[in-house]
Amino acid sequence: MFVVPIAMAQVWLFSALALVFFGFLIRVMARRQSEAGGRHATSSRLGIIVQGLGMAFVVPGAIRPALAWSSLAAIAACLAILLLMSGAIALFASSSTALGKNWSFQARTRSDHELIRSGPYAYVRHPIYLGMLLFMLAWAVALGHWANLVVAMPLFVIGTKMRTAAEDRLLEASFGQDFIAYRKSVPALFPRLKH
Question: Which domains are delineated in the chain?
Answer without folding.
Answer: 8-27+39-185 (1.20.120.1630)
